[in-house]
Amino acid sequence: MNSPASRRRRSTVPGDETRERLLDAAERLFAERGYANVSTRDIAEAARSNAAAAHYHFGSKEALLEAVFKRRLDGVNAERERLLAECVAAAGGRPDIADVLEAFIGPTLRLGATEEGHRFNLLAGRSSTDPNPEVRRIVFGVYDSVGRCFVEAAAAACPDLSKDELFWRIACVYGAMMYIRADNGRLQHLFGPGVSLSDSAGALRYAMPFLTAGMRAPPAAGTE
Amino acid sequence: MNSPASRRRRSTVPGDETRERLLDAAERLFAERGYANVSTRDIAEAARSNAAAAHYHFGSKEALLEAVFKRRLDGVNAERERLLAECVAAAGGRPDIADVLEAFIGPTLRLGATEEGHRFNLLAGRSSTDPNPEVRRIVFGVYDSVGRCFVEAAAAACPDLSKDELFWRIACVYGAMMYIRADNGRLQHLFGPGVSLSDSAGALRYAMPFLTAGMRAPPAAGTE
DNA sequence: CAGAAGGTCAAGCAGTTGCTTGAAGCATGT
DNA sequence: ACATGCTTCAAGCAACTGCTTGACCTTCTG
Prior knowledge:
The structure is a homodimer.
Chain A: H1 15-33, H2 40-46, H3 51-58, H4 61-90, H5 97-111, H6 115-127, H7 133-157, H8 163-182, H9 186-191, H10 200-216
Helix pairs in contact in A: 1-2, 1-4, 1-6, 2-3, 3-4, 4-5, 4-7, 5-6, 5-7, 5-10, 6-8, 8-10
The first copy, chain A, binds a DNA duplex through residues 2, 4, 10-11, 13-15, 18, 39-41, 49-57, 60-61.
């Protein structure tokens, strides 16, 4: 066997350029067409490289997708966890749900302000409902920790909600966030020009109040 | 050429059985694995039929997916359009947003109460963020009409919202609905046993109030 | 300069894909 | 009995898939 895939970067290294180009191409193509509809040859060609290079650098197509996720998320998710912990601590364990939502959703929506961040958000949103086991494994793993932090913080912010009710409300929050990131073009098709899910400032201004109001709705429990 | 794909059903017809089995198998497999990860051979095998039968009856893999969608949606979407028109008319053009949401979302969530309806909801939810052009074309086409009715009714129910704000709020509604239908298992993984997105009664009881509260939130406009 | 190591490449392997083919099966109407 | 037309099937085609191979090239090290 001859693959590195871990002990890289020994000095300036010429090959790291190729590696980065492969990650860029993979991110863009996976986002545009979906994991299953992109071949390693497509990626190699888009990266002006060779089909074997992707396997040399990453070992497999699956590992390449994982590397794409980790490259963008390692920083953002650490920030989200920090912000969540801060707003819980600052409120003495009883945070405002608006702050919790801002800490969880804000960083990823702001990521969409840059072109490459928007491309990644497309990929992340679309991957979130991908049934492919390889994709699921990666998505589950990469969001597991920050997801737990969010659920915990949301529970602390909404102590009046039953587990059931919290579950469903958080599902709505996740759904909205994923749908906005995935940007499938359906709504723009219905609304016509002038609006776009890729406008991350609009997402922050208009979607956050919606979600906050939803989380603050009086409990529906008791309604049998 | 020898394919029917349109002028079928001449009497009792033995072959309609096979056709129905193919639709069932395709719906289940597409829902479980995603359009791209299922081959026509997989479908034929699951339907205890032959690989050529799928192409004989439907012409192509794409047309088979379209037939799966149409079989379930032709009824439901007509009902949704009727309910939307009714609640607008009954309120003299100024419907309650709660009724609009119920008319639009209720029928599809209630579809999830049956086993095959739940399977279809899985497929529909997951297909809504599928970037594959064939899948997009089908999804766009099959939901276009009812989507326009809903946007129109929501606009009538919320006359104080700007086009921008209505767009983003409807995006949140769509997102929640799609995420619930797609049921990717992530939230259940975070919450543990006892809750499930496949519980359609829970969806109606808990998600609808969330979305109604979100739609009723005071306009955020003016906040520059 | 010789060697080693990291990196790139064209070629190829085995398996899968959507779809087609031509021969057969089958019930019907004459 | 015969012909008709819908339906099924095994076999096959060309294209594509993820991944591997072995030969090269380049750069750093002794």
